[in-house]
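FAQ: What does a ligand-bound record look like?

Like this one, built around iron/sulfur cluster:
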Amino acid sequence: MSTVSTPRKAVALISGGLDSLLAARVVLDQGVHVEGINFYTGFCVEGHTHAIRREHQHKPKRNNALWAAGQLGIKLHIIEVIEEYKDIVINPRHGYGANLNPCLDCKIFMLRKAREWMEANGFDFIITGEVLGQRPMSQRRDTLPVVARDSGACDRLLRPLCARLLPPTLPEREGWVNRERLHDFNGRSRKPQIALAEQYGFHDYAQPAGGCCFLTHEQYSHKLADFWRARGEKRYELDDIMLLKVGRHLRPRPHFKLIVGRDEGENNFLSGYRGRFVHLAATSHAGPLVLLDGRADDDDLDLAARLTARFGQGRTAERVAVVVTDTQGSEHTLEVAPLPADEIPETWYL
Amino acid sequence: MSHHELDARHLLCPMPVIRAQQQVARLRPGDTLVVRATDPGALHDIPAWCRLHGHEVLATTTESGEVRVTLRVGNQ
Ligand code: SF4
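The answer part, i.e. the structure of the complex:
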């Protein structure tokens, strides 16, 4: 009597980058049923700034995780984790990386969520695109086991790109995958991945500089740290972290900062927040919409108006009319001289 | 067969596709759903997600900054 065994099922973490794409493909090639999972934390580099900024609008927009799943021909489940993720960013047990990126805690968190998904959906194991020694914090020889253990994924976690450098996992021991056909990539060189991508015919894959989320960006982390300092507590809502991605941010005084739209797209986006912030815009000249975050007395409003004028087309005019609107919608107009560029200290820019 | 509408306006990508995914999970094969969004990325993301999951895209339109994607739920 012949028995037809049903293929084993793996859930692959798909970030949209090359490594997770390759890792999933390596396992698909072994006849395993693979579906993708992708987590949206609010800090992901996907789309937003492209959606918002005019200058990016000629570029075709795509979600890289969906693109990768399309290349693989697998289902992709996008899971929103905005609320749960806050604790990871605010209190990372293993601390931050070079910026406010809690990579180790983040990896553990995502793998824990993937394990829960695996269990709830009757899948057998998890795949990630991790490469031994590739990232300073989360992909070291001593931290890879921590990620597997603390997430509860344990030896149901397969890292196909570096599996041959690690102890055999359950899928290898059980023969669900052939260890000999997995890889031994190691270190920061991207050459083996690029060669494998070539072999599979993957072109046009995303290569995010620095990492998969905004928290690895120095300037973004600087703005987030400033935001927490000004609030006096480490807390955020989705709108707060979205606003940190948009506009030019200046803090002329400890008790307020300005968010200055850099183009029409950003001005439109910021205008959605007019009910929550005091905002300024020139009326005598074209210029940005400026949100004021914090407390401002009359002198502060005067300074904010002069900065608003500075970033508009009236920057060389003698006087610019700037209308200031409070959160209730009541307006008053200030006639101000634009602040000269050399009177804006570098330290004001966040 | 029933017809449904999802308002995903003012959400930035990938939230429209996440909301569409959540709504579709509650529908039955053959049901139709119109997703309304203002992030132009939805015009690409929602059909891309539908192709992966076997849902049929019946129409996509963009009018005065609003994207509408109409889909028919496939077998899930
Ligand atoms: S770069 Fe961001 S998303 Fe990637 S592991 Fe680090 S904290 Fe998590």
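Follow-up question: can I read anything off the structure? Yes, for example: Residues 42-53 of chain B form the longest helix (12 residues).
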